[in-house]
Amino acid sequence: METRELQKKCFFAYNNRNPRRNLYQRFLTIVEEVGELSEALLVMDNVKPGKKINLKKEMADVFSNLLSMSEMLNIDIETETLKKLRFLSRRK
Asked: Quick one: angle between helices 55-72 and 77-90, nearest 10?
């Protein structure tokens, strides 16, 4: 599946669940999901006590919300990521 298609699927999946969610609410959801990913990593590395959290699920939550937000902004995240990789490869 192409990244652009995945963006659309993520957007429609989240939009069907909550069609009133605006761009800023989506951003706050990403921040929340990054926090959950951070907690999962801390527990995994035994830095923080707690019940083991599904790291794969938390990464997918961050990624799918980011894809959804990219679609909301009409940003082709694959194209922009490739541009960033080219820029990084030129840096020494």
From this structure: 110
**Phi and psi at residue 7, to the nearest 5°:** -55, -50
Q: What is the distance between the alpha carbons of residues 49 and 47, in angstroms, rounded to a whole number?
A: 7
Distance CA 55, CA 41 (A): 7
The pLDDT assigned to 60 comes to 97
Domains in the chain, number: 1
Per-residue pLDDT of 42-57, as tens digits, reads 999 888 888 888 999 9
For residue 75, what are the domain limits?
A: 3-90
Q: How far apart are CA 38 and CA 10, in angstroms?
A: 22
**pLDDT of 27 above 90:** yes
pTM for the complete prediction? 0.88
Q: What one-character DSSP code corresponds to residue 46?
A: T
